[in-house]
Amino acid sequence: MTMQAMIDEWYPVGLFSQLDGAGRTTALMGEPIEVARDGDGKAKVTAGDGHVLPVRVRYGHVWSSLGAPKKELFPIPEADQPGRRFVDVGVVRVRCSPLRAVENFLDIAHFPFVHTDILGAEPHTEVQNYKVEIREQEDEVWATQVKFYQPQAAKSASGGITTEYMYRVPAPTCSVLYKTCPPRPSEWDVITLFVQPLAEDLCDVWPWMALFDDETAMTDLIHFQQTIFLQDRSILENQIPRLLPLDPGMEIPTRADLTSIAYRRWLKRHNYTYGAQLVAQ
Prior knowledge:
This is Phenylpropionate dioxygenase-like ring-hydroxylating dioxygenase large terminal subunit. The chain has helices spanning 4-7, 98-106, 111-114, 218-236, 258-270; strands spanning 11-15, 24-28, 31-37, 43-47, 52-53, 55-58, 61-64, 85-88, 92-94, 131-135, 140-150, 161-171, 174-180, 188-199, 202-211, 244-245, 276-277. By secondary structure, the protein is of the alpha+beta class.
């Protein structure tokens, strides 16, 4: 299976704040790597054979690549917005395809059933019509006008509200979610999913948030998001097949799955197939 298209992308490989000179050993697409700080305190990523890999430090994370990325790491303008709190949620290891992890993040219909009484609740299970597009200029998948009733949309929310979402996929294993910000209705809270592909069926998931919330303790913000993702993990680790099917006939979509359909089509277009299943088995 060709991997070159995804080899030349940027991936999260650790939290910059947690790095020291001793570093940490991890993996990227099946290859062992070491992530550390050099003598000047800068992030350094080294492949198993000793050669130094490209590095960026952004959104609280160290990013690297086994190849030669043809473009810079995608922008998140809110990361430079004054007054926001930036939350390094940490890491969750999941025995699933990195592409499955992203697709699950894009799925709205599971809220009432997996995140019951937090991000959704019965009988509010209907997914209203929303808009999905592949934006050609940015080369990104976007879903907009997504609305869903939520008992507790965020740690800062008091009582149930109808939350509006926008989803954005700027890279094969990353997604950015913009959602209603309860303390500041004119702004969006930003919740991201940065996925590090360890292997085709194993990944480290690094959620990160940029919020307007001056009240909630940082540990509570982290715990809230970890609770959500740990609920997702049990679903992800039981999905069959483990890899993400890209053949439209292998899994039957519903009207609520428009974002997933666009994501799979976009992956196929770019030959982003590491962690994908191309034909029925």
